[in-house]
Design the sequence.
């Protein structure tokens, strides 16, 4: 089981001076560069990147805060011609492109695993199959927009790129033996050059009918009264008040409509709507 990065947890890069040092180190490194990105899609709309991880022979591991350093084009320029190794590249490349990070070549270990017919293609499963190592994934769905990032999350992030290059070597060998190396190269290039998906304009507006109660159940968080500003107890709405939270430009929705529909869902039947204080997730 991989439990600790080989060189320990590196400090988060969040100043121009620290970034310049990383650019110099990775530009002088050798071989492919392992790249990963963490998002907060379960907590915030969009696919914005909140942490960038890299590892390269001779440079070690770097954890970069793209909120503090939104322009990482200098790092991308230092890696021109270098192969980037990612797992599920199609998920990370759009967000990285927003930071000015554009790879010259890509090796996608998830796609490689799929082409080899592996039954499980998550990073932990592929690492276990190819390298015989365990890789913990308990922090994969946390809110990476949190600042400061807890040390255990940073450890997890560093481990995600710890063995990506070694994994790439084994998968490349297997693809060659299977006669799929050229096929894989074409697929990797297709992922690298794929145009960005068109932006989804206010996707929540497509929710209609009885899906609204489900949205109420699954996209609202129970919070302490200290964090609640003006959200009343839903059980106090009396069936007439416009008291449903209305963040992100929503028009007020009669709370009774939401409550009655939600009570018909599994979360309503479990009593989740009774005498609770709620606020809209990501309402700021």
Sequence:
């Amino acid at each position: 089981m991989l439990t600790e990065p080989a060189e320990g947890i590196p400090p988060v890069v969040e100043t121009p001076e620290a970034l310049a040092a990383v650019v110099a180190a990775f530009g002088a490194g050798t071989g492919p560069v392992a790249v990963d990105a963490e998002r907060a899609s379960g907590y915030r709309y969009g696919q914005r990147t909140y942490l960038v991880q890299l590892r390269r022979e001779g440079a070690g591991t770097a954890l970069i805060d793209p909120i503090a350093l939104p322009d990482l084009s200098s790092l991308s320029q230092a890696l021109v011609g270098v192969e980037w190794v990612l797992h599920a590249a199609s998920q990370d490349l759009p967000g990285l492109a927003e930071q000015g990070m554009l790879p010259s070549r890509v090796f996608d270990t998830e796609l490689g695993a799929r082409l080899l017919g592996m039954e499980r293609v998550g990073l932990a499963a592929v690492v276990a199959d190819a390298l015989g190592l365990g890789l913990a994934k308990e922090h994969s769905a946390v809110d990476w927009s949190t600042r400061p990032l807890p040390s255990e999350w940073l450890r997890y992030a560093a481990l995600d790129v710890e063995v990506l290059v070694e994994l790439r070597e084994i998968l490349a060998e297997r693809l060659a033996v299977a006669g799929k190396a050229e096929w894989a190269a074409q697929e990797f290039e297709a992922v690298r050059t794929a145009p960005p998906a068109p932006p989804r304009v206010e996707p929540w507006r497509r929710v209609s009918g009885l899906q609204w109660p489900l949205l109420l159940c699954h996209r609202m968080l129970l919070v302490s009264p200290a964090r609640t500003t003006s959200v009343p107890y839903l059980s106090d709405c009396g069936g007439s008040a416009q008291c449903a939270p209305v963040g992100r430009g929503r028009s007020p929705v009669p709370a009774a409509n939401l409550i009655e529909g939600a009570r018909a869902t599994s979360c309503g039947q479990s009593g989740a709507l009774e005498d609770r204080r709620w606020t809209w997730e990501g309402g700021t």
Observations:
- Residues 38 and 59 are 21 Å apart (CA to CA).
- The two ends are 39 Å apart (CA to CA).
- Residues 203-280 form one domain.
- The chain is about 35% helix and 15% strand.
